[in-house]
Amino acid sequence: MFTRINTATLVGVEGYPVVVETDVHRGMPCFNIVGLADITIKEACKRIRPAIMNSGFAFPNERVTVNLVPAGKPKEGSHFDLPIALGIVILGWEVKGGEDAGRGDTAFLGEISLDGKVNTVRGALPIVMSMRRNGIKNIVLPLGNAEEVSILEDMNLYPVGSLKEAADYIRGTGKNNIYKSKNTVRSEDFREDFSQVAGQENAKRAIVIGAAGNHGLLLVGGPGCGKTMMAKRIPTVLPNLTYEEKLEITGIYSAAGLLSEECPIITKRPFRSPHTTISAIGVTGGGYIPRPGELSLAHRGVLFLDEMGEFESKTLDAIRQPVEDGYIRIKRNMVEVVFPSKVMIVAAANKETSILIQADTPVAA
Hints:
The protein is α/β, with parallel strands linked by helices. The chain has a five-stranded parallel beta sheet. It has helices at about 40, 45-55, 80-95, 125-135, 145-150, 165-170, 200-215, 225-230, 245-255, 280-285, 295, 315-325, 350-355, and strands spanning about 1-10, 15-25, 30-35, 65-70, 105-110, 110, 120, 140, 155-160, 215-220, 270, 285, 290, 300-305, 325-330, 335-340, 345-350, 365.
């Protein structure tokens, strides 16, 4: 007897569906996970057994095999804990037709603690968006990710706090209440505005023109004249985010693990100001498991390069092509990842260093 449960995996800032197949056979007790799983998923073997037992369910004293379909694509993430654990729990019920439990238009994701608690996971929104594209409408997910994913208005979300609650959902004995968004917006989103800037009318005019056409800007002036202060306020004169842009940006921050309980949904255009010592990879993104860089985190917003003359030339060269193309293509670990990078570049330099900078962008002094 075996079970199939829907979930998905994250590649960069995009997801693709995965089916978790679980099978129990007679033989020496062991727990095997196959299907190009990363270390995080393989470590689930040691988390799931005590979690199942501490939740009041029996763990089979037999040979357990978990297959992640499609087997030829790499998978990563701790959110596979919940579908794997549920597959084993369902097999313990010995219910006829158990192989169809959790299948169809329902998917599961969540990390499990040793006591059976379901923890928040990284990248929940892009993972659920990939499930939506494949016709799945019902999602069982950690309670901490519910507000983040609630931006998808056409999905039915069932947040759970423990493995037992997820099992009750499958049995139909739980509350199974659809989550309703709280629609919380932080007051600090609106603290900074150009009304707080006295003078600098020429600079303000140049910024408005640059923002209207999404042009690059180079702010040149002496220390303390207000270059950084004005750059931080540029997102306030940009158009409001559309629904699709909110999905894009929130998905990127979710994949990067930068969302918080206070700000589960990105509602304003991002402003990123990396330090001058940042590397080219830090700007463009990358790593063994590719993560978004500063260019992607500033997608649909502003990337501010303060003291532009202090950045390494290699870092500045790495910015050019992604800004022209609007995306970054990275190949790592048998996969190709595409990060979006449609940004407005704003740079600042002191008068003493401006002679070293050659640029054809509008200048505000």
